[in-house]
Specification:
- It contains 3 helices and 5 strands.
- By secondary structure, it is an alpha+beta fold.
- It has a single domain (2-133), classed as 2-Layer Sandwich (Heat Shock Protein 90), CATH 3.30.565.10.
- Strand 4 (116-122) and strand 5 (125-133) form a beta hairpin.
- Helix 1 runs antiparallel to helix 2 (31-52) and helix 2 packs antiparallel against helix 3.
- The protein is globular and about 40 Å long.
- The two termini are 21 Å apart.
């Protein structure tokens, strides 16, 4: 398991995504899959930066978990506001744009682009994991 911990601020995004890309690249993911992994990781991290620490500074920890299968699991841990993003209902993508509720598209994108997603609360930490299979 490889870990990178940084302040939960947008200034950390580039460095965290570089870390994720590097670990995925070591697992032999194609350029197309690397871009998908980066996009999903970016969406999840920005959600932590914007919504997790609304009234205080905090840290975010990114873990890249390597398993025997040809995949990579990215865990994003924070001690921000307790929130299960998977509790959100999928947005109505068939509705006219003017009728759609604002928000929720990022989590929808994560669900569609990752092979598996999971959330759990451990103590005072949010742990959001996204698994990508190298196929």
């Amino acid at each position: 398991m490889l870990i990178k911990k940084m302040p939960a601020r947008t200034e950390s995004l580039h460095e965290l995504l570089k870390f994720v890309r590097s670990e995925a690249k070591k697992r032999g993911f194609s350029e197309n899959l690397l871009q998908r992994i980066e996009l999903v990781a970016e969406e999840a991290l920005v959600n932590v930066f914007v919504h997790g620490y609304t009234h205080q500074d905090g840290e975010v920890e990114v873990r890249c978990l390597i398993s025997d299968d040809p995949g990579l699991t990215i865990e994003i841990r924070d001690k921000g506001v307790s929130f299960d993003p998977l509790s959100l209902a999928d947005p109505d993508v068939q509705a006219d744009l003017a009728d759609r509720k604002i928000g929720g598209m990022g989590v929808f994108l994560i669900r569609k682009m990752a092979d598996r997603v999971a959330y759990r609360r451990e103590g005072n930490s949010n742990i959001f994991s996204m698994t990508f299979l190298n196929r």
